[in-house]
Each structure stands twice: as C-alpha cells, then as structure tokens.
Write a structure and sequence with these properties.
The protein has about 190 residues and is an alpha+beta fold. The chain folds into 2 domains: about 80 residues, Glutaredoxin (3-Layer(aba) Sandwich); about 100 residues, Glutathione S-transferase Yfyf (Class Pi), Chain A, domain 2 (Up-down Bundle), CATH 1.20.1050. Helices cover about 50% and strands about 10% of the residues. The chain is built from 8 helices and 4 strands; from the N terminus they run E-H-E-H-E-E-H-H-H-H-H-H. Helix 1 runs parallel beside helix 3. The longest helix is centred in the middle third of the chain and has 27 residues. It is globular and about 50 Å long. It starts with a strand and ends in a 9-residue tail after the last helix.
Length: about 190
C-alpha cells in the first residue's frame, strides 16, 4: 500500500498523521511538485485530477482524504478508527462532512482573504466545544474524526484563532497536538543559517 502525499497541507497531513500514529504498513511517498509528478500520465491514472493525497492498494486507487482515512481504518481494524455499527458510522460521516463542508471552507476563505474576520469561525468552534463537553475525543474514543479536524486547528491560521471561550476544544486541541502521529507529521521548516 502506498500513499502519495504532500504533508504540508491539512488534508494530506491528517492521513499521514493517522498512518504514523498507528505505525500502519503504508509506504508514504512525498510527491515532487517541482518535477510535476502529479501531472504525469502514470499519476493521473491514480488520481485523475492530479492532486494529493491518493492511496494505491494493489489495483485499487483511492483519492479524497476522508475516504482514505475511513478506508485505512477499515483495513486496519486494530486502530478502532471507525465504528462498525450503523449509528457509530453515521456519526463518523457526520463529523467528516462537517469538516469538509463547514470547517475547511471557512478556513479556506480566511486563508484566501475572501473573509478577513477570524471571529467568523467562532460559531464552528462553539459547535465543536459543545460536542467535546465531557469527552476526551470528539466521539468519546479516538477516531479518524479527531485526525481530520485537529490538523486544521493546528495550522498556522488555526493557531491564530481565539479559543478562550472554548475550554473543551482547547483541552482537546492540546491533547491532539501531543499525539504521536500529529507530532511525527509536523513539517519542520529549515531554520535560518
């Protein structure tokens, strides 16, 4: 199994963090954008839009980061990354859709300058804080959802947000920042020479 990635972005990092957290038997390949690796015909057979991440498992090619997360959790059930009961799985899907339909676009609008008020994210942070009340993780037990959401709040932009009114979210974010996979997937930028 091979993951094509560029771990600098949250959608890539969440998959890399999940793999590293559980030491999954997945080869991680950092694509070379300078050589236009994702635009080559061989790669376009894996991911027709020429983006990352993409996972190759034998003759099965899978793209979209949340789909990759849930697939890995199903292939490696020892992670307990997704529940097997219908309600538990629906809860996973709900939060993955929340991440891709609400959190990611809101943060993307801020990053692109389409939105300039960091306070615009407060309603989303309030929803997450409420969900985390009395819980260590979003769905009680560590799951793919925690990886999918936390990496957005641990970005440079995410660190600028005001978490002061969200104690449950703050504690969870701090816990997630110390998780093995999150730590090991942190991209270290070269310092000044």
């Amino acid at each position: 199994m091979r993951l094509y990635t560029f771990a600098v972005t949250p959608n890539n990092r969440k998959v890399v963090a999940f793999i590293k957290h559980y030491d999954l038997d997945v080869e991680i390949h950092q694509v070379n954008f300078a050589k236009q690796e994702t635009k080559q015909p061989e790669y376009l057979k894996i991911h027709p839009m020429g983006k990352v991440p993409a996972l190759v498992d034998g003759d099965f090619n899978l793209w979209e980061s949340n789909a990759i997360l849930t697939y890995l959790a199903a292939i490696f059930p020892e992670t307990c990354g997704v529940p097997t009961d219908p309600k538990g799985r629906a809860d996973i899907d709900r939060w993955l859709h929340w991440q891709s339909s609400h959190l990611m676009p809101a943060m993307g609008a801020l990053k692109a300058g389409e939105e300039t008020d960091l306070e615009s994210l407060q309603p989303l942070l309030a929803v997450l804080d409420q969900q985390l009340a009395g819980r260590e993780f979003i769905l009680d037990e560590l799951s793919v959802v925690d990886f999918a959401i936390s990496v957005y709040l641990l970005t440079k932009l995410g660190r600028k947000l005001d978490y002061s009114g969200h104690p449950n979210l703050t504690a969870w974010r701090d816990r997630m920042s110390q998780m093995k996979g999150i730590v090991e997937s942190q991209v270290k930028r070269p310092g000044p020479k």
